[in-house]
Each structure stands twice: as C-alpha cells, then as structure tokens.
Amino acid sequence: MDLRQLEVFAKVFELKSFSKAAEKLSISQPTVSAHIQNLEDELGLRLFDRVGRKVIPTHEAKILYRYAVELLKKKEEALSELLSVTKKSKGTLRIAASNIPGDYLIPHILPKLKHIMPEVVIQVEILDSKKVVKQLKEAIPEYDIGFVGSKISDQKLEYKKILDDEIVLIAPSYYRSETIKIEGITKVPLIFREEDSGTRLTVEKALEEKGINPIFLDIVAFLGSNTAIKEAVKKGVGFGLVSKYSIQRELECNRLKTIKIEGLSIKRSFYAVRRKDITPIPAARTLWDNLEKFFNSVNT
C-alpha cells in the first residue's frame, strides 16, 4: 500500500465516482481503476461496490478512509515542514476565491506576491463564497487558502479581514436620476447574483434589516458574476447591485453610473480564510502573515 494508492482511493471515496476522481487528480479513469484494483488485491478486500453507474463504498472502505485521510495529512505536513527548513517557498499556491477577490483584488497583489515568492506558481479558482468554504472544509482540501465576501463560521476555519467593501446600485450611463428612495427598490428591474454568492447574501440581509423582503423585488435575471451583471446593465436589461471594486473602469469611461439608494447603505468585508488544523505550506503561510501589507494599497 502506497500513498498514491491512498490518495486515489480517498478521492474516489469522497466523490463516489471513478471518472470524477480521475478528473480531479488529472489522470485517466483506467489509471484510477488500476490503483483501486491493486489496493483491493493487496488488502484482500473489496472497497467499492459498482451498482450500475453508482460507486458505493463498503464498510471496509469507510474504515480505511479514516486512516487514509490522516496519513495524507501527515504527508502534506511533512512536505510543508521540509520546505520551511529551506527558507524558500516553492511549488504551487492554490487559492479559491469568490468573484470580487478573484477577479479584482488578487490580481492587484500578484506583483507583490511574485516579488517575495518568485518560484511559486499562483493558481486561483473562482467559486462562490459558500463553495470556497465547502472546499476548504473537505477532509483533504484542494486549496491552501480562500478569499470570500461573507463569513461562514466553522470551528475548523480561521478568518482574517482584508478589506471593507460597499455594494452599490448601478444603472446605464444614460439613466437620468441620481437617487432612488429605498421603497422604490422593489419597483425597478434588478439583476441579481446566484444563490450562494456573498454579494447576494449581503444584499438580502441589508434589505431585510430595512423591512424589505427580497421576494418582493422585481428580479429579471440571475447571473453568475459581477462582469455579467455589468454587461447586462449596459444593455439596459435592468439595474445591478455590485461591489464598488468591480466598476471603477466603467465609471471612469462613463459606461455605467451609480444610483444612491436613500436610507440604505450596503457594507461588507472581504476575508481570507484557512484551515486551523492543517499545517500551511510556506507560500500560504507567507501570504497569510502579510495580508495587511499586501492589501493596504488596494483602493478604488
């Protein structure tokens, strides 16, 4: 039994699929099947039942998974400590970020990151805030650190605030009014983010605190990014509620305008998040320890 076999086994166990495990591990499905078959032969046990297209872990697989997770964690911790001894960050720093941090904030700090960690490859994947947290909570996380627009409490996670944000109402540049009364928000066509977006969660909470139930909003579309919302607003589809960090270029070019909502200010913060119980790789530790220095120059 080797660690690579256990890594493949753990991924099949978690995803309940040979094909999805192959995709996540960037190997072929026959290779996944071969690893599992060799592991089963070595142990003399059946680890998965194949029922049609379903992959069902056996009782023995559930026992093995508990130990596999611990062994794989120890492997990562050992590699992390060995890299620390060299006092030189190498390898890949895997970041999961929600839309605004991933699209607008992390690119801003990349020059600083590359300056102090020139040998590190920065890999960023854009997910909604809930998925970022969900990925970090996996038994073997695929990411070293996350950036989110809403704080989802969990004992396994540690948060650090990086920036304050404001969510603003945007309209096409030709729209004449500069303000809208708060009760008027239910009368204009709105373009909203998807269900698990940190932006949407913040907007809905702010409206509810003002006695406005989101179900009474005139929502004409749900779109999966601030960029998509901005483009739809430019075309006159409706109004959007987006981060102030996402619209600076459009305001400068007079392609969008902001509309003040009287009696409503939608504030939030962005956070870095990581696991408490996993020793971070050196690059992730360097980023975490320097978050304030990296982000203090991000401005609107």
Report on the structure:
With 300 residues, this protein is α/β, with parallel strands linked by helices. It has eleven helices and twelve strands. It has helices at residues 3-15, 18-25, 29-43, 59-85, 99-116, 129-136, 198-209, 226-234, 248-252, 282-289, 291-295, and strands at 48-51, 54-57, 91-97, 120-126, 145-148, 157-172, 179-181, 189-193, 218-223, 239-243, 256-262, 266-275. The strands form two sheets. Strands 3, 4, 5, 6, 7, 8, 9, 10, 11 and 12 form a ten-stranded mixed sheet that branches. The chain has a two-stranded antiparallel ribbon with strand order 1-2. Strand 1 and strand 2 (54-57) form a beta hairpin. Helix 1 (3-15) packs across helix 2 and helix 2 crosses helix 3 (29-43). The radius of gyration is 23 Å and the shape is elongated. The N and C termini lie far apart (54 Å).
**Number of H- or I-type helical stretches:** 11
Distance between the termini: 54 Å
Strand/helix succession: HHHEEHEHEHEEEEHEHEHEEHH
Largest sheet entry? 10 strands, mixed
Helix content: 40-55%
Shape category:
elongated
| Low-pLDDT windows of residues | none
The radius of gyration is 23 Å
Mean pLDDT equals 89
Beta strand %:
25-35%
Number of strands: 12
Helix/strand structural class: alpha/beta
Note the topology.
Elements: H1 3-15, H2 18-25, H3 29-43, E1 48-51, E2 54-57, H4 59-85, E3 91-97, H5 99-116, E4 120-126, H6 129-136, E5 145-148, E6 157-172, E7 179-181, E8 189-193, H7 198-209, E9 218-223, H8 226-234, E10 239-243, H9 248-252, E11 256-262, E12 266-275, H10 282-289, H11 291-295
Parallel strand pairs: 3-4, 3-5, 7-11, 8-9, 8-10
Antiparallel strand pairs: 1-2, 5-12, 6-10, 6-11, 6-12
Helix pairs in contact: 1-2, 1-3, 1-4, 2-3
